[in-house]
Amino acid sequence: MPPAGLAADTAPITRIVTDLLGADLLGLYLYGSAVTSGLQYDSDLDFLAVTATALDGALRSRLAERLLRQSGRWPRTGEARPVELTVVARDAVVPWRFPPRGEFVYGEWMRAEFERGAVDPPAPDPDLAILLGMVRDSSVALAGPPAARLLDPVPPEDLVRAITESLPALLAGVDGDERNTILTLARMWITAETGAVVSKTEAAQRLAARVPPAHAALLGRARDGYLGAAVDDWAGHRAEVAAFVRYAAAGITAAADADREQH
């Protein structure tokens, strides 16, 4: 069952997924802040579906069409929350191997592509290692058994490998996505050091306690914007953001190198 107060938000996505995937659906899971740190105003609703077989192109297109109508836009302007749905075929991730392959991803950052009818084919995705680890460790089953019964554990070294392989794409998209980039870098750094995936707000708080004051202030600004406690405006902070991004990327790389030496 979804957390209290979220049944109305999760029910439409559950219907879409169960209607379109039918008997091929092995499990549907709600994860992320909805079941860990608590949803904020701008938070997505994060879902993972596990299927028995791969999806064909027509089914991926139907999923995109239905989700376009249901998902709220980002930045959020109305009642509907933005939705992120990832679909994996079980035999592509069990037994575990790196990189895992995704069948389908829907997210509001892809809305323009989906509206043009462009749906990416299945592809290996290192970042899926982090996502699958999160789902296995902390999720709510909306259909099927608990995730730990369907998914293999993700080795800590593959979590770190996923972080390093995902880092270049994150760094390339800083402009216009400053808050999310800062918080994601904080979470990557904590995971690279500890092997644990924590919430963005917890990662920012833990990192702010030990970094130089200017970087701590930027982390606090990003956290407060995410929580809705401050105006989320990054105009005039380009130099501070760039400095933190360089600093964090170096810290993540050093932590990943140390992890590789241990393994």
UniProtKB/TrEMBL annotation:
Adenylyltransferase AadA C-terminal domain segment(s): 150-249
Instruction: Spell out the reaction equation it catalyses.
Output: spectinomycin + ATP = 9-O-adenylylspectinomycin + diphosphate
Q: Which domain of life is it from?
A: Bacteria
A molecular-function term among this protein's GO annotations: nucleotidyltransferase activity
Q: Supply the InterPro entries for this chain.
A: AadA/Aad9, AadA_C, NT_sf
Which key words are in the record?
Answer: Antibiotic resistance, Nucleotidyltransferase, Transferase
> What is the protein name stated in its UniProt record?
Aminoglycoside adenylyltransferase family protein
Q: Which organism is it from?
A: Nocardia fusca
